[in-house]
Design goal:
Number of strands of chain A: 12
Distance between the termini of chain A: 47 Å
Radius of gyration of chain A: 22 Å
Order of helices and strands of chain A: HHEHHEHEHEHEHEEEHHHEHEEEH
Number of helices of chain A: 13
Oligomer: homodimer
Structural class of chain A: alpha/beta
Strand content of chain A: 5-15%
CATH topology of the largest domain in chain A: Aspartate Aminotransferase, domain 2
Strand order of the largest sheet of chain A: 2-8-7-6-5-3-4
Shape of chain A: globular
Mean pLDDT of chain A: 95
Number of domains of chain A: 2
Chain lengths: ~400, ~400
């Protein structure tokens, strides 16, 4: 039996995925699990989007153009124009979700052996795509006590080597919720120009910013030749299953390279593109997005307040996205804690699933006392989930002490 | 301005794509272009598929499971059972078209620097994916005079080096239409076992076989640990824009590796999966496929007969798919010929677009006197297109002779 490739062996499976069977087993035992572990909003997909799919008038479901259906490109250009960014038709390509846009950004900017700087904690699939492309992730460590804002620019500059090709981040960020300020991004921009780096900004949560303005990388004209926007409709339209994103860049060489990559995978899905066109053509699309922002904003406030009731919990109010990263100093292995919550703990037949923190760090040993909580449920459920979490932490710590005492 | 990566620079754009603007320009001049250049069927997508999409009862369009929606996996397992192949649920994963299945097959079997044997002429995107993954394509040259069947197995064996990891092919094949016999595939199987190679078989045209039985790689139990089926619904269901395919393998290590890859791209498109489930649940789905086969079979016969009328044309009757590869010995550069047909030639306001042959070969210098014709139009149109092609070849040759005489 032939063995699989080394690089795919180097891929770590996601810790969240490893824990899913435990959640399934808990559900089978009759336990209700509040799932705050993944970034799947519970908010209905806009009717205009769904109608655009249902009303598709298609005789032959043929390959759509590799760069995207022209109507999709036009609709997205209109969407960026509405946020004050002017694009031409050759500066935007439709992708199969933000995931493909991200993979394209890595593949067009980096050769195997190159290095990419990424603030940690970061979305774990960044690392997966980097491994598959032979690219080394160099983490810029950020701290919970500092709300995961960037360290001084000199600290980032010290990580640059001759192999560094890009700085990459999301803002507002999954998993930390940090939204970088214009000044932070200006610092990155200056550094990128000084060291001739690409800047890759992943902004699927841009409309979900609750404090200040969500600064897009496209707002820095000095980066026109080197800024790459990775975007997705998944979050702001609650359409994760659509698999539609886009990549935007004003560097024509990069876009020519993107065009070659879109050709070898042929097309992005047709139905979802029709849904997107219908959504962005609907007169009230901004209201739909604003309503989503209002909901998540209120949830963030509720969740943040509730978390203050857990003794020792360390977190800062995140500026955006729908995640809070929390440190529980009394927990030394949050993956074990999540297992405990799913296998051994419940309150009145209910428990909570969150994401262990370590999977979001590239630096070994970091994040083991942290978890990511996604506020993807309604507020009464978030309040209840935090109560259960609080009780779970107490029970977990007690159990650990008992075990330690017995061992002693 | 930062430069793009070397490997994406190494990607050649598709010659077919380069010629598209010429076809657009011809159309703008009022010329009707018979487009026989791409593998896009003209046959309506089955109603059951479209209804499955239109009737989707979705509140939140959430991420679908990374391996595929369970209903899609079950439906596809039933589809393979109908063709006599028994699979378990963990031996099949839904992919974003055959393209992704192919990319996954390369990524899980090969490291950068490894070699893959592929009979040429082959689908050009094989090379594109290989380049992006740092894999070397080693062509097994096949000949038009032999109907593009495989050379003696010793000739293939002579190409194997310590870096060879896989033999890869499509059957019935794009672009040649060859359908390998059971004996040919048995030869490949024995060779793969002898040299411990993976066997990757791309079979989107399996139901479009007109002579003999379309042998699938899954019919060789001795290959269970090393055979990988790459498949797609695009052709047999005329649903190219669905972007749904699958990868099938009975090697659990390989499937575990595939699972990691599906996780980093999250999901395949939801709507198309619902369409596929509906199609495969419809009582008459086999009739829909059989009807498609009948149509293409009849077209193949018509086109093949018509081509016999072109003086000097060399081709063999292809066993399957919907392509014929033809050699026109009087043409020394078929890309120039296609340009001539689009820019400088028409009969009563009509011309023909075919695909130049060289783009389907890895060996430099091959295919320049060959073209691929896709029989994706109705028979009267195919007959008319061949008449125009015949006249075009005469005019092209005359023009070349005139130019040569003037130069002399």
């Amino acid at each position: 039996m032939r063995s699989v490739s080394d690089r795919v062996q180097a891929l770590k499976g996601s810790p969240i995925r490893r824990l899913v069977p435990l959640a399934v087993a808990a559900t089978k035992r009759g336990i209700h699990v509040y799932k705050l572990n993944i970034g799947q909003p519970d908010i209905p997909t806009p009717k205009s989007f769904m109608d655009g799919v249902r009303n598709a008038d298609i005789d032959v479901l043929s390959y759509s153009p590799a760069p995207g259906i022209q109507g999709t490109i036009d609709a997205l250009i209109g969407f960026y124009a509405d946020m004050g960014v002017t694009l031409t038709g050759d500066q935007l390509r439709v992708t199969i979700g933000g995931s493909e846009a991200f993979a394209f950004a890595l593949q067009t900017t980096c050769n195997p052996g190159d290095e990419v700087l990424i603030p940690e904690p970061f979305y774990p699939n960044y690392k997966g795509h980097a491994i598959m492309n032979g690219i080394t992730v160099v983490p810029i460590t950020t701290k919970i006590e500092n709300g995961f804002h960037l360290p001084p620019i000199g600290e980032i500059e010290g990580l640059i080597t001759p192999r560094t090709r890009a700085i990459l981040f999301s803002t507002p960020a999954n998993p930390s919720g940090v939204g970088y300020t214009r000044e932070e991004l200006k610092g990155i921009a200056d550094l990128a120009i000084k060291h001739d780096l690409w800047v890759i900004s992943d902004e699927p949560y841009r409309e979900l910013m609750y404090e200040g303005h969500a600064t897009s990388i496209l707002e820095f004209p000095e980066l026109d030749g080197r800024a790459i926007l990775v975007d997705s409709i998944s979050k702001r339209m609650s359409a994760c299953g659509a698999r539609i994103g886009c990549i935007v860049c004003k560097n024509p060489d990069l876009m020519a390279a993107i065009d070659k990559l879109t050709q070898i995978r042929l097309s992005a899905p047709t139905f979802s593109q029709l849904g997107l066109i219908a959504f962005l053509s609907s007169p009230n699309y901004k209201d739909d997005i604003a309503e989503m922002r209002r909901k998540f904003h209120s949830r963030r406030d509720t969740l943040y307040d509730a978390l203050q009731e857990i003794p020792g919990a360390v977190c800062r109010q995140p500026e955006g996205a729908f995640y809070i990263f929390v440190k529980f100093p009394q927990i030394d292995d949050s993956e074990e804690f999540v297992k405990f919550m799913l296998n051994d703990f419940s309150v009145d037949g209910e428990t909570v699933m969150v994401a262990p923190g370590a999977g979001f760090y590239a630096t070994e040993g970091k994040g083991h006392d942290e978890v990511r909580i996604a506020y993807v449920l309604e507020e009464p459920k978030l309040i209840r989930a935090v109560e259960i979490l609080k009780a779970g932490i107490e029970a977990y710590v007690e159990q650990r002490q008992r075990v330690a005492a017995t061992a002693g």
